[in-house]
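pipeline/complex-builder :: batch 7 item 3
reading input block
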Amino acid sequence: MTTFLSFLIIALTIIGIVQIVRIIEIATKLKGPQEDITTDQDNHYNALTMLIVGLGFTAFVAYSFKLWGHLVLPDPASVHGEGIKLLWDTTMVLILITFFITQTLLFVFTYKYRGKKGKTALFQTHNNKLELLWTSVPAFVLTGLILFGLNTWNKTMVPDTSEAFVMEVYAQQFNWTARYAGEDNQLGKAHYTLIGGVNTLGVDITDSLSHDDKVVREIHLPVNQQVLMKFRSQDVIHSAYMPHFNVQMNCVPGMSTQFAFTPTKTTAEMRKDPEMIERMSLINEARAKRGDAPVEFDYVLLCNKICGSAHYNMQIKVIVETQEEYDAWLKEQDTFQTLVSAN
Amino acid sequence: MSDHNEHHHHEETFITKYVFSTDHKMIAKQFLITAMVMGVIAIMMSVFFRLQLAWPAEGYPILETFLGKWAPDGVMDPNMYLALVTIHGTIMVFFVLTGGLSGTFFNLLIPFQIGARDMASGFINMLSYWFFFVSSVVMVISLFVTSGPAAAGWTIYPPLSALPQAMPGSGLGMTLWLVSMALFIVSALLGGLNYIVTILNLRTEGMSMTRLPLTMWAFLVTAILGVLSFPVLLSAALLLIFDRSFGTAFYLSDIMIQGEMLTQTGGSPVLFQHLFWFLGHPEVYIVLLPALGITSEVVSTNSRKPIFGYRAMVGSILAIGFLSFIVWGHHMFMTGMNPFLGSVFTFTTLLIAIPSAVKVFNYLTTLWKGNIQFTPAMLFSIGLVSTFISGGLTGLILGDSALDINVHDTYFVVAHFHIVMGLSAIFGMFAGIYHWFPKMYGKMMNKNLGYVHFWITFISAYGVFYPMHFIGMAGVPRRYYSNTAFPMFDGLVEINELVTVFAITGAIAQVFFFFNFFYSIYRGKDAPLNPWRSNTLEWTTPTHDRIHGNWPGEIPSVHRWAYDYSKPGADEDFVSQIVPLKEGEEEH
């Protein structure tokens, strides 16, 4: 029945539009012979609409940052993230300036130079000076932007990791597992053929480096301590995305990838941040409407490369804490050797 | 220049005239109609998944009607969601904006605008359409297989697309997808070679390369891009077929899936991405350049002004074409490739902003001090300039590897490419249809319906894609069936509803277009010979007594460029390319 009704509604809507259209058709025919070529009146109204809609949109873009600004991710909670933010803000300012100038020119020109009978357009084929100007100015600005960007990229992707602690994030449809390197700060070897039973990551027990490794279902990170995160995947490509830290790296089967970063704010600090409290209250309002329980802020690592049906729910909690809290937590976790011998 | 004077006056049957036609004008229409059918399918799909994103888990009987077992009680299955976004992307990129846009306007305009009787090879041209048609049919059939259509995203990255165990869509649906694409590529290559040969060899007397309308330059460069890049996609697809069906390991290594340990080792999934994007990035320009070419023509004609900076426009088309081959890695910043490579691709990618900026400034200057005629085609072209700016600018963020880290694969990307490539190209296509409809059917389209169509489409288009930037900056990944699994996305419910409302409005607005199109074919007013008072050659020959050969007598020779609008000293505000220079008149 509902199917029939929805079909009926669609059919009626389309019939309705077609009827309106036919009325317009007949009405225009009644007005007498008229070719479907623009008149001064068409030019005037369309130009005016273009000016209003165009400038309206441009103004809305400016206003949207106020309207929707609170939806955007908070400031990055990592050392390299601050560099990226500076680059982002600089680029954004340049983009918005260009956007406002060019869009305004477009809509003002289309209005101002709307066609009228008897008016003659300017015959102008080129202007080398002008063209040189608007080729060289973008080239100049882009040179600066490229240099700034490359500098930031290199700092982010090729940092000094001699002091970093090493851990692994392992992806499979549709969950994440973490492995800590333990005392020796070196991960034991792993191979997919060794996967089986409790050894879900295929860690090589014959490699003594693996004995003190710790396999866990939650990521804990000490604040202000660089972590060198290594990524592997068991089946298809996944992507480890931690939006709050500006960290993202694909996890590719048959290949090991990595990303090093330093978190700068603990989960507890984030929860106390007034801006975050306001954000969370909005979120909890929306959750209440849906009948879901309120939540507190948490960092998260989520999958950002299409990987199958439950891609949209492939996540692992990330907790940033003080070194002492982290040490205490890690101590409680079983080593890989204990895990294997217990089974 | 070639000059075939002999006229083929053989009797045409229904089959040779409408089905297996070798006339470029008929083939253009065939491409257009096929693309319109495919476009309707893709638009409907987008409405379905937008419903799911705005009001997840709510039952829609209409979904059950269309999707059957994939939407029990009207609630969409996650696998079907992925299939819908995959097929929506595939159809829009390849079937509508490549096959449809290029197929229609290249075929229609190349022989007309260069002054040729037809394409270099009418037979190859016909084959090109029929490969396209069969490819479309296979793609549509793939929607009905039991395990569902391909669902690994339009980029079909393996191993997800290679292993039927990974998702239902990687079964028969993916096989058909690959077969369809292989046929599509054959069509694109046959067409592309024909376009290049025709433009280079069949220009009429006096039509030097520097007198070619900018549409022809854009089409030529597009065809060259296609011929150089599509074969790479074909090889990528063939290797994927080998991996899927014959146990090879080009893209597979060290995989354990659904408890099954695969024996393939030594391949690399990243190899596929290199091959895919070596086509995939030029493909963006294969979609965009024809739209820009059409816009150059429409903007100049309707501003009643020469296109500003013809040589700079040609130069930027060539520069964009060249650069498009050395930027593909910017789709792969996060694959774990060497960061140095990332630097190289950032550098080359941001360079594209320079020729793009030149094009925008030249369009703006063409409008300046013009006598702008607001035809529906002109409105869509102005819309294109606006979306090309809006979408192009966010490319500065995504092309910059450091900034890409946090917006890669989020809705920010979805917003960016839909505006710069989707909207711009579809606006260009609409502009082309409104502008050359009189040439195609000898009738006028109703302008008022065209205005209504443009205004609703333009507003809805920005209404859909502008807010998506914020969804992306909130960190929402694309291709998520639902955002409800993450509390951090719970604040985005309203903005997602807004997007969906605009999407539905925009989809319904297309009814005005389709109605106008088909109604005008039969009931439109007869078109005058040169309704837009344009200079190019296609307006010098009558459309009514359709002839296979384009001009009834001799092919006219060309004496000037295509942009003598409002030239001082001329009798009217346009001078056709076939009019000889007056005594003492200088060529622009």
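note: The CA atoms of residues 464 and 499 of chain B lie 5 Å apart.
queue -> next item
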